[in-house]
Every structure is written in C-alpha cells, then in structure tokens.
TrEMBL record:
<dbReference type="GO" id="GO:0006355">
    <property type="term" value="P:regulation of DNA-templated transcription"/>
</dbReference>
<dbReference type="InterPro" id="IPR013321">
    <property type="entry name" value="Arc_rbn_hlx_hlx"/>
</dbReference>
<protein>
    <recommendedName>
        <fullName>CopG-like ribbon-helix-helix domain-containing protein</fullName>
    </recommendedName>
</protein>
<dbReference type="InterPro" id="IPR010985">
    <property type="entry name" value="Ribbon_hlx_hlx"/>
</dbReference>
Length: 53
C-alpha cells in the first residue's frame, strides 16, 4: 500500500489485548486501525504542545 510523500511508516509492539481494544474502538469509529493510531498520536502531541505553553 502506498503512503503519501509526507508520511512515514513506523512499527510498534503492543500486547494482543491492546490491539484488540484498539480494533474495537476503530470499528466503532468506522476507521482502520492505522488511522485510529495516527489520530491518537496526533491528539497526544497536540496535548503535549498545549501543556508546554
């Protein structure tokens, strides 16, 4: 699968339980797992940026 020129691919290791929980959330939000994880990371980074102000 091709990714945009402004994107990079990373690999993470999580427990099977965490993966199952994330898959359940992604199904509820009509997202794929990768999109959900990307959104979670963006939200975390935005929170960290706001906390530094």
């Amino acid at each position: 699968m091709a990714i945009g020129a402004d994107k990079v691919r990373v690999m993470v290791t999580i427990s099977e339980t965490e993966k199952q929980q994330l898959e359940e959330i992604s199904k509820l939000q009509n997202r794929n797992l990768s999109n959900l994880i990307g959104t979670i990371i963006k939200e975390y980074l935005n929170e960290q940026k706001a906390d530094q102000k």
